Amino acid sequence: MSRVYRPSLLLLALAVLVVTHLLPGAYASASVVFTPIGPFPSGQRSDFRTGGVAIADFDEDGNLDIAVSNFGPESQPPFGNTSVLWGTGSGFSAPDNWGDGITNGVVAADLDGDGHVDLVTWNGAGIRIFWGSGSRTPRSQQSLATAFIAIVGVADVDGDGKLDLVATEQLNDQVEVFYNDGAGVFHSAVFAAGSGPTGLAIGQLNHTLDVVVTGFWTSTVSLLSGNGLGGFLAPNTIPDGALPSGVVIGEFTGDASPDVFYARMGCFNDADGTTCDGDGVTILAGDGSGGLTEWASLPAGEGPSGIAEADFNGDGREDVAVANFNTNNISVFLGQAGGGVESLTPIAVDRGPIRIAVADLNHDGCPDIATANWRSATVSVLLVSGCTVPSSPTATPTSTPTETATETPTSTPTLTPTSTPTITPTVTPTPTATDTPTPTVTPTSTPTKTASTTPTASPIVLDRDGDGVDDNIEDAAPNSGDGNDDGIPDSEQPNVTSLPSTKGYITVVLGDGCGQNWDVAITPEASCGNDERFRYPFGMVTFRLNCEQAAVTLIFHGAATLQGYSYRKFGPMPPGFNSPQFYTLPDVVFGSMTIGGVTAATATFTLVNGALGDDTDSTDRTIVDPGGPARSVAGTAPVASAWGMGGLVALLSAVACLVLRKA
Fold first, then answer.
1. pLDDT (tens digit, 9 = 90+) per residue, 598-627?
2. In what order do the strands lie in the sheet with 174-180?
3. How far is CA 563 from CA 206, 311, 505, 555, in A?
């Protein structure tokens, strides 16, 4: 069963259920199939409770591993542990114990920048860091003392290029930030966070890095706006009326401004099959300045808690998976063209899923799902197949992928945004579980789609300046086809190219040193794989330059600012130009300019043949550049370092993303 929710109707239409022939245990909608494997035991004892999950290639063998946190009975040592299940390429081996002791959650990231993924765990006594070694044994451990912690997120809070830790302290009504110097030294500061903060999401809502916390037991949601100096302002707290749990920040309403998507429980009862009025998810529409307005409330399973964000079908839009603790399944919501989400038939997992992690576990380019199952002490894995992974982006303008059909919806149960006044984000992950039935269900009606006003891609009819973009498309750019406001149509300039993205036109301008754009296109993030900690609202801009050095300015006509963004690239890195991976391009200057009386955001940087930022070595005298502005989505979902996973990312879709490379 699948449902499409859009801001138009107050009532939901009945969903259409269609059964088709699938492999046993596989769940599908349109082209996307979710196939369960496992479950896999997550600890050394069956009476453990598994409460956290993170995915990374800890032993650097090219297969992603799964780290879990386990909570044991208080009457029987060791009271819990941290375990790692080693990826084999076709499943996961029995877990190794990395450390005894109660552990409430895990998150993975390369904190010291040495290329090895580290593992962060926490409990009532504080934080413990297992420093990665690239092998199956951590190099060392380190403890950070603090008050009772509900959850920890990872983000570069102070903008120094090093990942910091952000923790919610439930008993002290505060968030504590552990600022990282990159060498194992942390200093901390605390910020008021509303009543009883439990859930956590970190992202840009107000042109800075902001924090959203949910108070599960106090039924509150609070927004801590960044102060631009690496700290946070006083919280804006509102009552929620339910029990807000997992939360993510992403773009779900179609206006390019980040929004908040969170799970909410109507009540709490730790028993299978519990039914509560009010269980579901809520979308809060962001206005780009920190204001949040309730936009839609949608049904989910019973006891929705853990939450994660990814592009499951590869259409360039953000999707969300929610763990339903009491009905032992996962709800998936696919982002739709023009805003709104499509709800798929819930997918069964083992008992008591409480948190979710997402990564490409089987090297097919699609993000897969792993759940920590509280009641069964297991990890369930859902392998996603059928996502769109372009094998060769063409030189022709790719127009927006907004029309791509995603899962099959039901009739047209479109949900309307409420006109409720401004609300602040909420939510943190809470347990969700699932038994493992193996129905073969697939929704099959046609998804409702909103028409795109952006020009669609078509074969090139006329390209006088040779940049690979049809003149008719360039002439449709803002400011009467003069995207950089220099008084000359872009279609007549080989060093200026304008073409549409999912969030409006982008103009590529070359400065001194290089006079010709070649093969300019915009592709979704999925064409390069899945950048675990970032999302690309504008897509990734690709082009080829036959010169030694180029000053590049990108003008984003669909946004007034890119504050809080990083410029991310995908490709091999010097020296050696091996192992394509996602990375942040340094020394990019974000700004803005006025084009035809309208403010447009800009990103300016210099590319040098054979240096960082070029995807080929210096011998070809060619600069190849796939990249774009990306927004961090670090928070409750585990973070796998792009550096530690470089070898794996190379296997995902190097051919698709690097097709522009010329011999």
1. 889 999 988 888 788 777 665 665 677 688
2. 149-155, 164-169, 174-180, 186-192
3. 9, 23, 19, 14
Cis check: omega of the bond before 409, within 30 degrees of 0: no
At 302-315, the pLDDT tens digits run 999 999 999 999 88
- For residue 289, with 0-12 CB atoms within 10 Å meaning exposed, 13-18 middle and 19 or more buried, which class applies? exposed
Provide the pLDDT for residue 16: 24
And the tokens for 145? 């003392």
pTM of the predicted structure, to 2 decimals: 0.62
Strand partners, 294: 284
C-alpha span between 620 and 559 (Å, rounded): 35
Helices (H), 120-278: none
User: Which residues, including other chains, have CB under 8 Å from residue 291's CB and lie 6 or more apart?
Assistant: 422
Q: Which among 1-5, 268-272, 622-626 has the top mean pLDDT?
A: 622-626
Token digits for 577? 């130009």
* Cis peptide bond N-terminal to 575, omega within 30: yes
- Measured CA to CA, the distance from residue 580 to residue 572 in angstroms comes to 4
The contacts of residue 71 (CB under 8 Å, 6+ apart) are 48, 49, 50, 51, 79, 80, 102, 103, 104
Whole-angstrom CA distances from 76 to 47, 70, 270 are 10, 13, 22
Nearest-angstrom CA–CA distance, 330 and 346: 5
SS (H, E, C) 156-191: CCCCCCCCEEEEEEHHHCEEEEEEECCCCCEEEEEE
pLDDT tens track for 341-396: 999 999 999 999 999 999 999 988 899 999 999 999 999 999 999 887 644 333 33
Closest CA to 121 of 136, 102, 134: 102
Contacts with 388 (C-beta within 8 Å, 6 or more apart), sequence order: 31, 313, 314, 315, 401, 404, 524, 526
pLDDT of 405 reads 30
